[in-house]
Amino acid sequence: MILAIDPGTAKSAWCVFDGLKVVNCGIDSNQELLMKLRNWNLEGFRVAIEMIASYGMPVGKEVFETCVWIGRFFEVVDCEIEPAFVYRQQVKLHLCNSPRAKDPNIRQAIIDRFKPTGGGKTPQIGTKNLPGPLYGVVDDIWAALGVAITFHDTMMSPIGET
Fold first, then answer.
1. Is 14 exposed, middle or buried (0-12, 13-18, 19+ CB in 10 A)?
2. Which domains can be identified in the chain, with CATH numbers?
3. pTM of the model
4. Average pLDDT value over all residues in the chain
């Protein structure tokens, strides 16, 4: 199981991904997510957090505030293996083979990876009555899922393996 976090300044998206489907997901205030992380039993989990990278351009205070939250999430996660940082550029290259990919491209690349087993016009997402493997994924949860998939496919080694 992978817990992936897409951090933000005030709210952060997260998802639990088992390699085949989204098991659980949400968007919470950072304080609420911090409390959840303190209380969750993450034994057997791997944790991946989207990390900020510098591209040489000036940034605003929101970027630095997000960095603080990344550090707080990293510190409070209690699991067998230290959390991994996944950079947005890695997600773009892994899912879309392009550093210029935008959120809609990433969303579509994720949808294309899953079988259309649910109902509705996007059966990979599905409906309440006939959910697909991506049911519940909305808004910034797509970014968290991109982190989870990239980590799963490119960086994950079994627990205990060095």
1. buried
2. 2-154 (3.30.420.10)
3. 0.93
4. 94
